[in-house]
Amino acid sequence: MNGLPVRLQQVARQIPDHSSVLDVGCSDGTLLAWLRDNKSVDGRGIELDAARVAAAVTRGLSVVQGDAIHDLAAFPDQSVDFAVLSEALQAMDAPAKVLQELVRIGRRAVIAFPNFGYWRVRKNLLLAGRMPVTPSLPTSWYETENIHLCTIDDFRALAAELGLRIECEAYLAGEKPISAWPNLMADHALFVLSR
Amino acid sequence: MPSSVSHRHLRLRADLPLDSGQVLPRPVIAYETLGTLNEAKSNAVLICHALTGDQYVASTHPLTGKPGWWTRMVGPGKPIDSERHFIICSNVVGGCMGSEGPASAHPEDGQPWGLRFPVITIADMVRAQAALLDGLGIGTLLAVVGGSMGGMQALQWAASFQERIRSVVAIASAARHSAQNIAFHEVGRQAIMADPKWKGGAYAAGGGPAKGLSVARMAAHITYLSEEGLTAKFGRQLQDRTGKSFGFDADFQVESYLRHQGMSFVDRFDANSYLYITRAMDYFDLADPFEGLLAPAFASCKARFCVISFDSDWLYPTVESKRIVRALVAAGRHASFVELSSPFGHDAFLLDPPGLNGVVDGFLKAVEQDGFHAAKGQGR
Predict the structure, then answer these.
(1) Each residue of B239-286: pLDDT tens digit?
(2) Model-wide pTM > 0.90
(3) Which residues contact B266 (CB under 8 A, 6 or more apart)?
(4) Are B254 and B288 in a shared domain?
(5) CATH number given to A6-115+148-194
(6) The domain containing residue B165 runs over which residues?
(7) Does residue A26 contact residue A45 with C-beta atoms inside 8 Å?
(8) CATH number at residue B212
(9) Cβ of A62 and B334 within 8 Å?
(10) Does residue A63 sit at the B interface (CB-CB below 8 Å)?
């Protein structure tokens, strides 16, 4: 997994060789290119930012410029093995709707996001009384694109409310995988969901 | 009007059946090639030209002496690379740069076809290209690439000859002509037909409706630019004078520019061809056979697609490209789409806007390496 950021490695581990993937908010295609080159994955991507799309297409990836609300609708039901949403759920206008789209398009959905229940976040709020700025959430409240931050327990509750099955969970504290007390100890979470 | 210059050409081995139900008897198709066809015949790239373009995509134009119209994209070391690809570009049927068109001699009386020439469509143009490739011994294309009307042909290839193409690049294009597109074309056609020298299309070579064709070109040329681009280039600057003339000379630089565009156009283009080709574009609607649904047009095509639009293009705006992309996505195709930024309007595809060459280059190289994606992406 050389060259791939730790959080994308965590996503990549969930994707078996030769599967098909739709990466929603794929940025410049780092994950898709890695999956193509190392796991022969049949990948597609969607990304809002034109310069990132151009960079991804320049790498030879099938990426369309579009947003997760209007442009996901065209993708057929159950048309890929995995629909991936990495580091973007918290920036979505309508996270619940996007989750439903992911499990409609993908036989499984892989969602990775920063955990707002992480102890450093709580400490920041509790002791300093300030909006937290952490390695997972590096921008100030007035600059961040993150409008729908949630904790791991929040996410579990939403998945249950939407009737989605949690197939697998994985947690990171910094670069280190952890499993105990994730809602408190993990700054980053990954869920694999299905309908 | 072009006539005396000779163009490289091939007379098709069979008559060309047309969408109208008519048949064009063994038409001549003029074409140019660059590069060398490899042994596997796997490196052929077909470039489709726009309304007033021609086959001189990257070689010197025999009439104007100018370099080809797409030298920024096509040539040694360019995204469409004459050192790597075998590049073919043909003049569309109905055109006037050596392919069979209304200015060609009718096979029976040797007089120009004039309006006896059958009305052609984008699909007819593509059928003629496929027949040309048959004649050149080329089965499968690595890519069909075009901007504007060229993009329409590239998309039509995906619907008509899906088994013969590995990829499609459609730039600043659309899958149908909008009411506004048709309206602008109608203005051009009426300008031509209002010129007494048009004579119902039966004008002699060299004596055509130059004024009408010139006005048609002027009107069309505005649609290829953007307000921002025109303002930046001309503003309200006066042409070679210090004050207004209080008359109807070309006081403003933009007037002078348009007049020049119109007048130089008539030296290289036939008025009847302009009528036929604009008609073909107006008739174009890939979704027409499928009750207005576009996705079925791409249902059985295995090719990868690259669709590119420009933010200042109001002739074929991004919304039309997005319509194509949604249909491709719905059909399960491998598609790439990006809206690039350029102040130059529709003409941006002929210029060198940031990102364009990189995107086309990366896309084509992926198709060349590929095989896997195109095959595996099927049937989903």
Answers:
(1) 999 999 999 999 999 999 999 999 999 999 999 999 999 999 999 999
(2) yes
(3) B1, B208, B210, B213, B214, B217
(4) no
(5) 3.40.50.150
(6) 9-177+283-376
(7) yes
(8) 1.10.1740.110
(9) yes
(10) yes
